[in-house]
Design brief:
By secondary structure, this protein is of the alpha/beta class. It is 35% helix and 16% strand. It contains 14 helices and 18 strands. It has helices at 14-23, 41-44, 60-70, 77-96, 129-143, 221-228, 260-264, 289-303, 317-323, 325-333, 390-408, 433-449, 456-479, 484-505, and strands at residues 2-10, 29-32, 49-50, 122-123, 147-150, 154-159, 179-183, 190-200, 233-234, 239-246, 267-269, 308-311, 343-352, 355-357, 369-371, 376-377, 453-454, 514-515. The strands form 5 sheets. Strands 1, 2, 5, 6, 7, 8 and 15 form a 7-stranded mixed β-sheet that branches. The termini are far apart.
Length: 526
């Protein structure tokens, strides 16, 4: 079946939905959701969204400098200035869409402070900011007559000249996106979605690793699709491991303990109860995430343990429950009362700073294709993301994309000769265990060899192991009826390959990429 839309959006987080809402007045919009509309990394974001709002003590320059310091010297200054200076107007837009940020008794925003920030500038809704934003946008999406939502609709590939029979390489000029092939959950067939423009907002890559805070849908699909389409990908070596995920064996995804809790006063301790962050950074538990994650990793290796503790027991119990109601209830359900007990925590794969390269208008290297949110690489984060900069980046670049797309949409038309998906000669996989086991192998390879601390030996071993899985999976894909499971495996392998390739190419330790073979550059020391 063929569908035609002016705007095709793949992904349902803050980037995809805000873009859809901003362009829907000018044409028909389709949002393709891999799962359901509310399952996205956005919905799991606890801490909040950063913006300069209290101008009495804060200003753009402070936010810019905090971002540059966290990014360890390779942020794109134009991207940083763009996000920081456009943040307040996008906060206003979120308020208009019904997002309820917590307020102080005087009516001002109740701002949090998180690691790497010099001021209190994190807007939040208790400890479930992402869920509040997600639900508010969903309500607006469902009310809009020009937006169609396709749930459980898995995008397999973006459509380019390659699908028209042309040979496409990285040197092919004017590669153009005409839409996407996506699995229809009702007919179990692959539909063709044609779009005058396409927005990729497919989120992160956390499930390339064994332990992650990301939802199960985060398998790097958009990045893998662009890689196959010969688009430009950058900075994949910079994978952020959140320092404090709730440690409970078998819990997947890992439950995030927001950085705002450390901003609130929580202290990291060893299993013996000793505070240890002062040994690694003068900012203690409020150092940037890459430093804190490596410090925890070091303490775990020194002691031979699989977690450390986060201590918030010294804070008033009722105040803690008021500030962090979701965390309190979640931890309590696993037998930990955070007002009385230390919280067991360990790092988990959390956020990718690299991805699909985009310009100021969120345009990718492929014509008529935009990308925003975690799947994109704007240059804002550099080598390490500053806490709570992700949601604001997503909506700022979605806004830029919407303006650029609206200015050109009436000059574009659909590609007329796009063929239907060809699955002739394929059959159902004989053994699903081949797919599930291969995915576990990818995750184990990445967690063991391409984690918080790396080495040339580990990276090369990871690449050789992955090469075998790649060949096996491509052979299986070519002869199998397409399924979400095999597509996710294929995408995870592509993303893992890019992370390893870029990590091998970076001959230094910088930000989130730390290797024992090049320890000459201390993290965050410009």
């Amino acid at each position: 079946m063929e569908h035609k839309y002016d705007f095709l959006v793949i992904g349902s987080g803050i980037a995809g939905m805000s873009f859809a809402l901003k362009v829907a007045h000018a044409g028909k919009v389709a949002i393709l959701c891999k799962s359901e509309l509310d399952e996205a990394n956005t919905a799991l974001a606890q801490g909040g969204i950063s913006s300069v709002t209290n101008t009495v003590v804060d200003n753009y320059e402070k936010h810019i400098q905090d971002t540059l310091i966290a990014g360890d010297g390779i942020c794109d200054i134009k991207a940083v200035e763009k996000v920081v200076k456009h943040a307040p107007e996008q906060i206003e837009q979120l308020l208009k869409w019904g997002v309820d940020f917590d307020k102080a008794p005087d009516g001002s925003f109740d701002l949090h402070k998180e690691g790497g920030h010099s001021e209190f500038r994190i807007l939040h809704h208790k400890d479930s900011t992402g869920a509040e934003i997600q639900q508010s946008l969903i309500k607006c999406i469902k009310k809009h007559p020009n937006i169609d939502v396709y749930e459980h609709c898995f995008a397999i590939d973006i459509i380019t000249q390659h699908h028209l029979g042309q040979v496409v390489t990285r040197h092919t000029p004017n590669i153009t996106c005409y839409g996407a092939y996506a699995m229809n959950p009702e007919t179990k067939t692959v539909d063709t979605f044609l779009g005058k423009v396409t927005m990729l907002a497919t989120g992160g890559i956390g499930n390339v690793y064994t332990t992650t805070t990301n939802p199960l849908v985060a398998t790097g699909d958009g990045i893998a699709m662009v890689h196959r389409a010969r688009g430009v990908i950058r900075d994949m070596e910079f994978v952020q491991f959140h320092p404090t995920a709730f440690y409970h064996p078998g819990l997947h995804p890992s439950f995030l303990i927001t950085e705002a809790m450390r901003g609130y006063g929580a202290v990291l301790r060893t299993l013996n109860g000793e505070e240890f962050m002062h040994k690694y950074d003068e900012r203690g538990s409020l150092a940037p995430r890459d430093i804190v994650a490596r410090a925890i990793d070091s303490e775990m290796k020194l002691s031979g343990t699989d977690h450390v503790y986060l201590d918030v027991t010294h804070k008033p119990a009722e105040q803690t429950k008021e500030h962090f109601p979701m965390i309190y209830e979640k931890c309590l359900s696993y037998g930990t009362d955070i007002t009385k007990d230390y919280i067991p925590v360990a790092p988990a794969a959390h956020y990718l700073c690299g991805g699909i390269v985009v310009n100021d208008n969120a345009q990718t290297s492929i014509n008529r294709l935009y990308a925003a949110g975690e799947c994109s690489c704007t240059g804002l984060h550099g080598a390490n993301r500053l806490a709570s900069n992700s949601l604001i980046e997503a909506i700022v670049y979605a806004d830029a994309a919407s303006k650029h797309a609206l200015a050109r949409i009436h000059d574009l038309d659909y590609q007329q000769d796009v063929p239907q998906w060809d699955d002739e000669g394929t059959s159902l996989p004989e053994e699903m265990v081949l797919i599930t086991q291969s995915l576990k192998e990818v995750q184990q390879i990445m967690s063991s060899y391409v984690g918080i601390v790396r080495s040339n030996l580990r990276l090369n071993r990871a690449m050789s192991r992955l090469a075998i899985l790649y060949k096996e999976t491509e052979d299986l894909f070519d002869r199998s009826v397409v399924s979400r499971e095999i597509c996710e495996l294929r995408n995870c392998i592509s993303v893992a390959y890019l992370i390893i390739k870029h990590a091998i190419a970076r001959k230094e330790s910088r930000g989130l990429h730390y290797t024992i073979d090049y320890p000459n550059k201390l993290p965050n020391n410009n």
